[in-house]
Write a structure and sequence with these properties.
The chain is of the alpha/beta class. It contains 6 helices and 15 strands.
Length: 217
């Protein structure tokens, strides 16, 4: 488990399954309200994250589950989490049907680019990044300290954008969206928390954008 303490929120994560998926839990520190991002697998591990948040002070309360995209490895515990917590669910509108089919759930809120998900007084903005899947959504959190965090799903990793299966049109769509909607909008200090593996920052990856374009993945 890893933990990032900001002024407004604590962000905890755990890696689950043979795919090493990152599950994130955003907890508003003053209220205990929580948002799960990507209920990928292993409900007991997710429940463990929720329980650990009791050490923040207020009793933890899951108030929503957000999904970054429709791929099966990111939704294997979604049905169980919805049954456990009975809360609203969020995903990109163009991936809703795929998630409903893959996870056997009914997403309650389809998100478009610029839509918002609130966790108490904390706001996460939906960033639509087209290419890895049609409805892939990154979630951007701006803490009152000035720190910014992007939960990028499988659209942006240390070293490149997400897999577009050698489809040039999909790659161009994704690299353009990542360039315009992340690198042109967020500061170098912005943390990027991906769907698998280690975190990075916008500033660490920014110098490599042209390299990624040239190699085509």
């Amino acid at each position: 488990m890893s933990e990032l303490l900001l002024t407004d929120v604590t962000i905890r994560s755990v890696s689950v399954s043979e795919m090493n998926n990152n599950v994130y839990l955003v907890t508003e520190r003053t209220s205990g309200k929580q948002l799960i991002i990507d209920a990928a697998d292993d409900l007991p591990a997710i429940q463990g994250l929720v329980a650990i948040a009791a050490s923040d002070g207020p009793p933890p309360q899951v108030i929503g589950i957000a999904t970054t995209h429709q791929h099966w490895d990111h939704v294997r515990a979604l049905s169980a989490a919805v049954e456990t917590y009975k809360v609203p669910t969020y995903a990109g509108v163009d991936d809703v049907a795929g998630i409903n089919r893959e996870a056997e759930v009914s997403i309650t809120h389809g998100l478009n680019h610029g839509d918002r998900v609130t966790v108490g007084e904390v706001v996460l903005e939906a960033i639509h990044l087209r290419g890895h899947t049609p409805g892939s959504i990154a979630y951007a959190l701006r803490d009152s300290s000035g720190e910014q965090v992007i939960f990028s799903g499988d659209s942006l990793f240390p070293g490149g954008v997400g897999n577009t299966e050698k489809d040039q049109e999909r790659f161009e769509s994704l690299i353009n969206d990542v360039s315009e909607r992340i690198f042109e909008k967020f500061s170098d200090e912005t943390r990027v928390l991906p769907g698998h593996g280690e975190s990075t920052t916008v500033g660490t990856e920014r110098p490599h954008l042209n390299e990624w374009r040239q190699r085509g993945w």
